[in-house]
Amino acid sequence: xxxEHELQLDLERQGIFLSTVNRFYNWGRRSSIWPxxxxxxxxxxxxxxxGLSRYDVARFGAELFRASxxxxxxxxxxxxxxxxxxxxxxxxxxxxxxxxxxxxxxxCATSGGPFRDxxxxxxxxxxxxxVDVYVPGCPPRPEALLxxxxxxxxxxxxxxxxxxRWYGEGxxxxxxDFPVPTFGAQGLEIDGRLVDPVGGLxxxxxxxxxxxxxxxxGRLEHPEIVRHFxxxxxxxxxxxxxxxxxxxxxxxxDDLKRGEVGNAEA
Length: 266
Hints:
By secondary structure, the chain is α/β, with parallel strands linked by helices. It contains 7 helices and 8 strands; from the N terminus they run H-H-H-E-H-E-H-E-H-E-E-E-E-E-H. It has helices at residues 2-13, 21-30, 43-50, 86-95, 106-111, 142-157, 249-254, and strands at 74-78, 101-105, 133-135, 182-183, 187-190, 193-197, 237-240, 243-245.
């Protein structure tokens, strides 16, 4: 392999360039990654800095932040994903054309971060869409996001036309839209089935990365813990996604302003 590489370098010095269709195809895609222009929380400030002249992301062909998912092929999930925002993120991802990629930027987008025990925070965007590259940190610096972009480019370089997820054979879940969750009486639902209860642990496993088939891993977070809903209960009725009637006992017990649990609107 080393001799072949040295031979190729020697030929290039003489003005002779040898390549393959795979290498040329991958070079074109890795050099024109267009991120989608949207942010969710404080990590979006670091993402904005990543696009400034100081870091010169134009060197990598990723300086064109697009306002439309139809023209973008990279979704940077920058910040906390609340259960109210999760359906919109999945809907935007479905509107992106293949090939499409996802970078989970920061601890919140990856696992919920410091808010993971909050009743309204999704414990990782990979519960709903597959992620190519994870960026740790709270918040990660622009250099970390730049490293994530380079890592994504390395993944693209290793792809082969007959094996990539949008051309290869076998099961291809990406050829259909990923299910968009909706608000139910006790949390996020997909096709009428509860997948992420308000205040509880997720009832579904995360997606594996696209390099490993972007399939459901089948591994639940903390399977030893009994799934329950510490916030919502049958006494709380959801009138619509933004308004509930009734007060859960857990809230009333910790609320010094309430003398008893009644049917007052919350």
